[in-house]
Amino acid sequence: MFARFMPREGRFFENFDAVAVKVVEGSKELAALMGDINQLPSRMRRIEAVEKEADTLTHATLEMLHKTFITPIDREDIHALALRLDDIIDTAHGAAMTVYEYDIQKLTPEAKHLADLCVQASEKVREAVSLISNMEHAKRILDLCKQIGSIEDETDVVMRAAMARLFREEPEVRQVMKMRTVYERLEDMADRCYIVATILEGIVFENA
User: Fold this and answer.
1) b/e code 93-104 from CB counts within 10 Å (16+ = b)
2) Looking at the domain covering 8-207, what would its CATH class be?
3) Would you give the distance in Å from CA 48 to the centre of its chain?
4) Is the Cβ–Cβ distance between 151 and 42 less than 8 Å?
5) What is the pTM of this model?
6) Would you call 9 helix, strand, or coil by DSSP?
7) Residue-wise pLDDT tens digits, 119-165
């Protein structure tokens, strides 16, 4: 009886799209920071703003989920996708905060390389999310998810090489520890993109 008066569907896909756009914005700001440490203050401010905007959208999605009776896809999938998309931008913010809090004065080419890979993965995430409302795009979504997995694999390779060079060539122990943490944050960001890809794959398999 009460179900007739409860909202149906909701603007879930629109919110997912909006958060995915924020993910790309944040990843690009982070990559720019990794390429030029002198841009730290302005890039940090922008990443923080993007993270807050993404948080607002994520909270709106979760609130909508609690108020919507009939959802376009499984409720658990909506919940997982909302949180895991937000995780990506949170991790980008964490990487930028590491540079700030550790007072890092010099970044490495490997940090920029890893950040650029995160941009690539984020852009694939954004495209896949933009297609998830229509299962006619199932094949393209799965292909994008596979590409995200390949990028995540590449970050692992770059990470190992970066750590090897860091321990071989960096004489300052504190710098080694600082950069190791930066690398780990960037690798984690790529991992978060892959987690979103696995959720998207599951949605496709359940609904296509």
Assistant:
1) bbbbebbeeeeb
2) mainly alpha
3) 14
4) no
5) 0.93
6) coil
7) 999 999 999 999 999 999 999 999 999 999 999 999 999 999 999 99
